[in-house]
User: What shape does this take?
Amino acid sequence: MSGHSKWSKVKHQKETTDAAKGKVFTKFANAITIAVGEGGSPDPNFNFKLRLAIDKARSYNMPKENIERAIERARGGEEGGTLQEAVYEAFAPGGVGVIIEAATNNKQRTVSELKNILERGGGVLAASGSVSHFFKYVGLITVAKDKKSFDEIMEAAINAGATDISDAGEYVEIFTEPSSLHKIKEALIAFGLSVSSSELDYHPITTIPIEKKETAAQILKLLSAIEDMDDVQKVYANFDIPDEYIK
Assistant: This one.
């Protein structure tokens, strides 16, 4: 699998900052609500996407009562259980492909706001299928190296059924088939590895190199603005920006 989305690093830094402000809890709650509806069960033991959503929320110390409230909302216990998942495609400056996952109860409102942000930031909303072929939908497990070598982690990941592995400094990114994500995660934990996160991810198979600092800044500003939208859950992009341009 070629390419690596450096935006994932930026997103993690941003989520950590936003979590301190409580900003991400609303997005996590929406993800939980949608997962209940899509999986057809409020029990994470029988709902794969719900389990992932709850694990993500817990990793950022989202209160238990917030998680339970989000599940109850999906079951019709609270107003707002009509959220729908929507996926949009766009192009950012430099021809960078962008995939946007949203949770919304008003798609017309979401599209209108998204178009305005894209236009102000030098991007454009694209037709379905225009961008998605630059990405592959995968399971992504991030493992801390701790005292283990990359080769040790790679061997464990391959034995567990991983499809690809990438060295990301202090961490190793392990890619799986979406349906195998939980099984491989459990195998890695049983091996003694420290799993930092596990999620479904649009991973770039084609990346766009960005050489100008000004263009890099424009792209990052636009993607941050999109991710700050209340309705937006996740943003994926296939840029390759030099590390020194990423703050």
